[in-house]
Amino acid sequence: MTDKTENSIDHVDTVQSIDRRKFLNTAATAGVAGTFLSMGLTACKQGTTPAVTGNAAPAAAAAEAGHSPHVAPGELDSYYGLWSGGHTGDVRVLGLPSGREIHRIPVFNPDALVGWGVTNESKAVMGTKADGSLKYHVADTHHVHGSYKDGTYDGKYAWVNDKINCRIARMRLDVFVCDKITEIPNIQGFHGIFPDKRDPVDEKINYTTRVFCGSEFSAPLPNDGHDMEDPTKYRSLFTCVDSESMEVRWQALIDGNCDLVATSYDGKLAATNQYNTEGGVIYKDMMSAEKDACVFFNIARIEQAVKDGKFKTYGDSKVPVVDGTLAANKDPKTALIARVPVPKNPHGVNASPDGKYFICAGKLSPTATVIELAQVLKWFDGEVADIAAAIVAEVELGLGPLHTAFDGRGNAYTTIFLDSNVVKWNIESAIKYYKGDKTAKYVVDRIDVQYQPGHLNASMSETKDADGKWLAVGCKFSKDRYLPVGPLHPENEQLIDISGDKMKLVADHPVRPEPHDFIIVKRDIIKPRQVYNMDEFPNAVKDPAESGVTRNGNKVTVKITSMAPAFQLTDFKVKVGDEVTIILTNHDKVEDLTHGFAIEKYNINFIVNPQETKSVTFKAEKAGVYWCYCSHFCHALHLEMRSRMIVEK
Ligand code: RUQ
Ligand code: CUA
Ligand code: CA
């Protein structure tokens, strides 16, 4: 195994020259794993991905055969897409099926349009150092998920993770604004998130109250300088965050790592796939075992343990940490966790919309494992001796299976990274096949995508209302699909019509790297407001007559209002050395009447939407006249909409 991966470049040439499907059927797991790694290294360079066959026809031609993604000018899309922005640390809002980008929600990184990271209000959400500067400037968002009620989206919140600085952010979907960010203690490499869908104990709580978080990287616990040279002492934690307060409720110490997360429809179980049960610190060690796992968490038992005081805390963190290690959880009847064996380095874990199964894809094994949740619960009740009994299918899908989506008609759609395709397969047929009925054909259809898909998601796929209309696929490489723009290529998002028996590729969209994951939500679920209520802002300047300058030592507060096409305070005076706070309330009530406020040479720009209030604080360092102008087009006299900051010596 080890030798093969070291010779990866030669190896990939050999592999690409043979029929991939045959290879799939005959390859030893070791061969599959080796191929995956070499593809990772060479996919871009080689430009010879063997996927350009069959359905790789131009999108226009393919569109004729499927539903059209074309939404005419003036017409509205039927779905909202919430896309993670990747390195840009934001969340993109798309209309689907058109793929039109409607909005970006700034989250972890500063944003020059809305003044995210500039205004005091956004800085308070993002987190600052003692001197008031932002604590972090970079982020890596992967996974966006929405809040639930009765097993479907309720349109209230969405959450997104930041892998770099271990933060989870919440966005309000009434105004599409991030309102809370929590940094999770004791972890690194925070990757998967998933909201729960109901409470495991209280029947009345049929909506989201927790968000579960998986961290990929193990580290010393606490990470304070001890055990640094001994990776066997590194630990991983699974985290539960309260969906309202956004405080960390508890963590569970586990063996191996976490990755992506899924939750059951009955609220009783959450799970994470584990690709590093080995506890390796280099990739060879992380892929040395034939089996890794999917770890299930018994939420009610964990929370009871916390209530009973059966927890520890680590370092400066006050968060209760329960013991979810294998050694401490041998008796199923009291166990907090159950570990289901899954082939080599699984990547995704996804809950089927009928509430019955979690599907874990192998990545380095060509298989997907179907785990029956009823059996996992029986194991916790001591009714099933071997947890492996929960595995009701383990079927081959292709080389490098990653993530799975659903159509609500019993079919699953899994991205096959190496083969560059999406496979549609029937879950019940897979179960029959695995039970021994070799006539059961579980693969229903397969479609090539361009190229190397990671995440995919279907419309309403992660809810009990999965409607099987559209499937979006996030392809990691666009290669030749777009005009070249220098060395950095966009990624390629493709839209597939899944309403019929056959999948039909209908559109391509270039996308700035790299979105990873997304959800597709029926448009009537989300009910946005276009105008704020002034009372929502405690510092609002409610009456233009209140505008003016007040001084307290060298701290100066400047209250300003806006109403097109003028600011109320057409000039204001401060002194060099003052700490100036400008509070601006927009008195316009008309939808879409947004103003901007930019101060020349002071590095300040932000917008105020109708009835919104924002503030900025800065030091007046330079004497002189500095124009403040409206930076957002609002009126025929937009250019004339200005004020002057006069900084006296
Ligand atoms: S993970 S594909 Cu966050 Cu699959 Cu990126
Ligand atoms: Cu106000 Cu432009
Ligand atoms: Ca592994």
Assign the structural class, choosing from mainly alpha, mainly beta, alpha/beta, alpha+beta, or little secondary structure.
Answer: mainly beta
Strand content: 35-45%
Largest sheet, described in full? Answer: 5 strands, mixed
What do the pLDDT scores average to? 91
Distance between the termini: 73 Å
Helix content: 10-25%
Shape: globular
Unreliable spans: 1-33, 39-64
* Ligand kinds: (dicuprio-$l^{3}-sulfanyl)-sulfanyl-copper, dinuclear copper ion, calcium ion
Strands, count: 39
Count of DSSP helices? 10
Radius of gyration: 27 Å
Strand order of the largest sheet: 8-9-10-11-15
List keywords for this structure.
649 residues; mainly beta; five-stranded mixed β-sheet; 10 helices; globular; binds (dicuprio-$l^{3}-sulfanyl)-sulfanyl-copper; binds dinuclear copper ion; binds calcium ion
What does this structure look like?
Helix content is about 15%, strand content about 40%. Mean pLDDT is about 90; it is low at about 1-35 and about 40-65. The strands form 9 sheets. The chain has a 5-stranded mixed sheet, with helices on one face. Helix 2 (about 10-15) packs across helix 4 (about 30-45). It is built from 10 helices and 39 strands. With about 650 residues, it is mainly beta. The structure holds (dicuprio-$l^{3}-sulfanyl)-sulfanyl-copper (RUQ), dinuclear copper ion and calcium ion. Dinuclear copper ion (CUA) binds near residues 630 and 635.
